[in-house]
Write a structure and sequence with these properties.
mainly alpha; 6 helices; 72% helix; 0% strand
Length: 128
């Protein structure tokens, strides 16, 4: 059951990260607006898209899932920070959808890390 739940969390987080790539890389109005508001257009949009691509792929690769969760937490923490400081919860009348997606990725990634804490190299308690 734990493996199924971990897969579901991974698929959910990866889907949310990967489905936004088209909008980031194609320069959709909403993506350009967001990154203009935070002073990071276009390089921030491209960089975050590339990092989200890496995180999404790693989340779907069981051997590297824990690293995908770490990368996802990092990039999505930036998104949440900007929503809470300069963008607001609602962006361009989306009823907070992007913010709630970011929270979902954040919580899913945290749960994956908790479930795979023994795979984290900096928590590994091997003795010599």
């Amino acid at each position: 059951m734990k493996i199924i739940f971990e897969w579901l969390l991974s698929i959910l987080a990866a889907f949310l990260l990967l489905q936004t790539l088209f909008f980031k890389f194609s320069g959709s109005d909403e993506s350009v607006y967001i990154f203009t508001q935070v002073g990071m257009e276009p390089w921030g949009r491209w960089t975050s898209g590339f990092i989200e691509l890496i995180a999404g792929v790693l989340l779907l690769w069981p051997k590297y899932r824990v690293y995908g969760a770490i990368v996802a937490l990092g990039v999505i923490s930036g998104a949440i920070f900007f929503h809470l400081t300069s963008l607001g919860i609602e962006v361009m009348h989306d009823d907070g959808q992007l913010f709630y997606y970011a929270l979902t990725v954040f919580i899913s990634s945290l749960m994956i890390l908790w479930m795979r804490k023994d795979d984290l190299p900096f928590l590994n308690k091997q003795t010599a």
